[in-house]
From TrEMBL, chain A:
InterPro entries reported for this sequence: Ariadne, ARIH1-like_UBL, E3_UB_ligase_RBR, IBR_dom, Parkin-like_IBR, TRIAD_supradom, Znf_RING, Znf_RING/FYVE/PHD
Keyword Repeat: yes
Stated name of the protein: RBR-type E3 ubiquitin transferase
This protein's UniProt keywords: Metal-binding, Repeat, Transferase, Ubl conjugation pathway, Zinc, Zinc-finger
Keyword Cell membrane belongs to the record: no
Region described as Disordered: 1-36, 539-572
Cofactor(s) required, per the database record: Zn(2+)
Reactions accelerated catalytically: [E2 ubiquitin-conjugating enzyme]-S-ubiquitinyl-L-cysteine + [acceptor protein]-L-lysine = [E2 ubiquitin-conjugating enzyme]-L-cysteine + [acceptor protein]-N(6)-ubiquitinyl-L-lysine
Domain (RING-type) ranges: 117-331, 121-169
GO biological process: protein ubiquitination
Organism for this UniProt entry: Nicotiana attenuata
UniProtKB/TrEMBL annotation, chain B:
Keywords assigned: ATP-binding, Nucleotide-binding, Transferase, Ubl conjugation pathway
Keyword Transferase: yes
Enzyme class: transferase
Gene: UBC27_1
Residues passing through the membrane, by range: none
InterPro entries membership: UBA (IPR015940), UBA-like_sf (IPR009060), UBC (IPR000608), UBC27_UBA (IPR041974), UBQ-conjugating_AS (IPR023313), UBQ-conjugating_enzyme/RWD (IPR016135)
Protein name per the record: E2 ubiquitin-conjugating enzyme
Annotated UBC core domain residues: 2-150
Pfam families, sorted: UBA (PF00627), UQ_con (PF00179)
Family, similarity comment: Belongs to the ubiquitin-conjugating enzyme family.
Active site per the UniProt annotation: C88
UniProt-listed PROSITE patterns: UBA (PS50030), UBC_1 (PS00183), UBC_2 (PS50127)
SMART domains attached to this UniProt entry: UBA (SM00165), UBCc (SM00212)
Domain UBA residues, every copy: 152-192
Length: 592, 192
């Protein structure tokens, strides 16, 4: 407990921390990533076992079970300890076990019958030697040949995670050690596959763990330590939304992003326009657009047809009448439809163009990074000027970070103020007010991003010391302003826009000044045994909501711990080394 | 590979007490993997009196994989396809256990005949009729039993009368004339 307290004391007051984060995107990216409090972890092929060890351990300790029983339970409850413990509290141990197919038999006198010289196997209906039969935990006993065959069939069927006993209506899950032992005798490769299936259940069946969606696949999975919706970065470098596994798209919600990408892919607006503004020629079926004139249209293939009904006609006509042709025409609706399609298309194009422009700028700016590095190298070679150029890296980082947020704010606005998602959520007037509010924020952000971007275009490698100092101040200021504006825009989105909706409440990944969190490598043993005992103790003490408490401490508690300690370390480094960060505003340095 | 030794044992075991259960399993050809099971329609059901043939195919994984079973005799039942004879029964799918045998599976099918589960239907048309118009359902099921589940019985009837010394063509026409009532046909054959 002491540890927690001292940890708390050491955390900066929040606004201090914020301004720090805004400025401190220092040189080596990996350092800050590991210090942000590890709310997500990379699970590699190697650490997969370690990753699930803790959950297994806790179930084993609490219920005094063997590992394979604990795993069966966890697989059944999809690695959701909270739920598992809730069932335990609500329905009791017997029910918990029965539902998952765990049978724990006390060692009764079964031994004697098995060790008799021969036994009858009810599957192959053969007498077999007593040494060639195996009794499962549920008490059912069959010959090893039959067990092996059964396991092989089940593994091939893809049921490795829940192989049931062979007896009819026995729901017990077989001991994985027995399966491994028997199968590996005949099919070592299949036994390996079985092991992998079991291990990977931790990823497949666990809502807190997901495969990294990279292609080609990097082999990693990411584990979240808290429930919050967020965007993460795998150690392979891919940034993605943990919730929908597509690329990071905040402040768009997952649904918005899905709709948007689909829209962009289909170019559905164009298709829409074509269907409204053109008609297929009745002969060659090419779409024909009418660009004026009367309702008799002729296609380039020579076919004439009536624009109103699309039917083929002769060529003899007047302004209002086609010889031998009449179709009941009701024009109004058609015009309205055309009007609407045109409006929708323009609206979509407005947002899409801006979205695209910022995405393009973002790519260009990331290319800029290299040229800027060269310029920095030149500057560093000059003796006369101050050596610290971390403000450039930080500024560049700020630029790319906010540029992304800005680009995704366009599809967000498209859906927020469009008819697709929230048409009935607000009145026209409300929507207008909110749109203005949001656009104000967006524009301010946009203006500052452009300024920041422009600052980096300067040929600063030729600058004199004063000019450099001036640019430095400008970049630092703009970085801070941009970060604040990003935060404000998110605040507006989260509280005034999405938060104010009556019916739906879409979630978006929150804005983080430090950017998308990079998952850290999992290092063995998240929690100690002592910690386990404490949490178990807690569960017994608390009657209400104990199950929730149960899970939290070791997960977020320990990660907080390590987060604090690394922060602490960093701080001592700073003060001990007598450096102070030139990027920090004066008052902050004073406080330090 | 199919565990042929076990199949052979199962056949012996099953056919030993055909008298009691009425359930038999015979070879379809000369292979142990294609079999015909026969179950009597349960008493007190529209299937009573019928003899139902079930086509059994054993896959390589048998008995670790369920046997493939299908009604060869047409039958009107919510859980059996009136078209293909496909059976909707859990133990023939995911609830199969290697400890079950062909005989227990056939017994389960027989039990299914007495206790349909219209909520989990194989044949939607039959199931709807079962739920909405039970009277018609019973009628249809009985008619199907009479028409299809007893057809092989007619061959036996012919066989029986032929063995008594009547020429086969005459037996057939007389049986047809009397609506396959063997007693009436016998009377008719004797009298004229």
């Amino acid at each position: 407990m002491e540890d927690y307290l001292s940890g708390d004391e050491d955390i900066y007051s929040s606004d201090q921390e914020d301004s720090l984060e805004g400025l401190e995107n220092e040189e080596s990216d990996s350092r800050w990533a590991s210090s942000t409090g590890n709310s997500c972890k990379v699970i590699t092929k190697e650490s997969l076992l370690v990753a699930q060890r803790e959950e297994l351990r806790r179930v084993m300790d609490l219920l005094s079970l063997k590992e394979h029983h604990a795993r069966t339970l966890l697989i059944h409850y999809r690695w959701d300890l909270e739920r598992l413990f809730a069932v335990l509290v609500e329905k009791g141990k017997a029910c918990l076990f029965a539902e998952a197919g765990v049978t724990v038999l006390e060692e009764v006198n079964f031994g004697s019958s098995v060790s008799s010289l021969t036994a009858m196997c009810n599957i192959c209906i053969e007498e077999v030697a007593g040494s060639d039969v195996t009794k499962m935990d549920c008490g059912h006993c069959f010959c090893n040949e039959c067990w092996t065959e059964h396991f092989i069939v089940k593994i091939k069927e893809g049921q490795s995670k829940r192989i049931r006993c062979m007896a009819h209506k026995c729901f017990a899950i077989c001991d994985e050690a027995v399966i491994r032992k028997l199968v590996s005798k005949r099919h070592p490769d299949l036994a390996e596959k079985f092991d992998r299936f079991l291990l990977e259940s931790y990823i497949e069946d666990n809502k807190m763990v997901k495969w990294c969606p990279s292609t080609p696949h990097c082999g990693n999975a990411i584990r979240l330590e808290t429930d919050d919706l967020c965007e993460v970065e795998c150690s392979c470098g891919l940034q993605f939304c943990f919730s929908c596994l597509s690329e990071a798209h905040s402040p768009c919600s997952c649904l918005m992003w899905e709709l948007w990408t689909k829209k962009c892919r289909d170019e559905s607006e164009t298709v829409n326009w074509i269907t409204v503004h053109t008609k297929p020629c009745p002969k060659c079926h090419k779409p024909v657009e009418k660009n004026g004139g009367c309702n008799l249209v002729s296609c380039i293939c020579g076919q004439a047809f009536c624009w109103l009904c699309g039917g083929a006609t002769g060529r003899d006509h007047t302004w209002s009448y086609i010889t031998g042709h009449s179709c009941g025409r009701y024009k109004e609706d058609q015009e309205k439809k055309a009007e609407r399609a045109k409006r929708d298309l323009y609206r979509y194009m407005h947002y899409h163009n801006r979205y695209k422009a910022h995405i393009d700028s973002s790519t260009q700016e990331s290319r800029l990074r290299d040229t800027i590095k060269e310029k920095v190298a030149i500057l560093e070679a000059k003796e006369s000027i101050a050596k610290d150029f971390s403000w450039i890296t930080n500024g560049l980082y700020r630029l790319s970070r906010s540029r992304r947020a800005l680009s995704f704010s366009y599809p967000f606005a498209y859906y927020m103020f469009g008819d697709d998602l929230f048409k009935d959520e607000m009145t026209k007037e409300e929507r207008e007010i909110k749109q203005h509010l949001f656009e104000d924020q967006q524009q301010q952000l946009e203006a500052n991003i452009e300024k920041l971007s422009k600052a980096f275009e300067e040929p600063f490698d030729d600058f004199k010391a004063e000019e450099i100092a001036e640019m430095r101040m400008q970049v630092i200021n703009l970085s801070v302003v941009t970060d604040t504006l990003c935060k404000k825009m998110y605040e507006c989105i989260e509280t005034d826009l999405l938060g104010a909706l009556k019916f739906s409440c879409p979630n978006i990944a929150p804005y983080k000044s430090k950017g998308i969190e990079r998952a850290t490598e999992l290092n063995g043993g998240r929690s100690t045994k002592a910690n386990n005992n404490i949490t178990c103790q807690k569960a017994h003490d608390q009657t209400n909501g104990g199950s929730i408490e149960l899970v939290q401490p070791s997960g977020s508690g320990t990660s907080d711990d390590s987060g604090c300690s690394s922060r602490k370390r960093r701080r001592t480094e700073n003060s001990g080394g007598a450096f102070f960060d030139l990027n920090l505003p004066a008052e902050l340095i004073d406080r330090n | 590979m199919v565990d042929l030794a076990r199949v052979q044992k199962e056949l012996q075991e099953c056919n030993r007490d055909v008298g009691v259960s009425g359930i038999s399993v015979t070879l379809k050809g000369d292979s142990l993997t294609h079999l015909i099971g026969t179950i009597p329609g349960p008493l007190g059901t529209p299937y009573e009196g019928g003899s139902f043939k079930i086509d059994i195919t054993l896959t390589d994984g048998y008995p670790f994989e369920p046997p493939k079973m299908r009604f060869a005799t047409k039958v009107w039942h919510p859980n059996i396809s009136s078209q293909s004879g496909a059976i909707c029964l859990d133990i023939l799918k995911d609830q199969w256990s290697p400890a079950l045998t062909l005989k227990t599976a056939l017994l389960s099918i027989q039990a299914l005949l007495s206790a349909p589960e219209p909520d989990d239907p194989q044949d939607a048309v039959v199931a709807q009729q079962y739920l909405r118009d039970h009277q018609t359902f019973v009628g249809t099921a009985r008619y199907w039993t009479e028409t299809f589940a007893k057809t092989l019985g007619t061959e036996e009837k012919i066989q029986k009368l032929v063995e008594m010394g009547f020429p086969e063509a005459q037996v057939r026409s007389t049986l047809e004339a009397t609506g396959w009532d063997e007693n009436m046909a016998l009377e008719k054959l004797c009298s004229g």
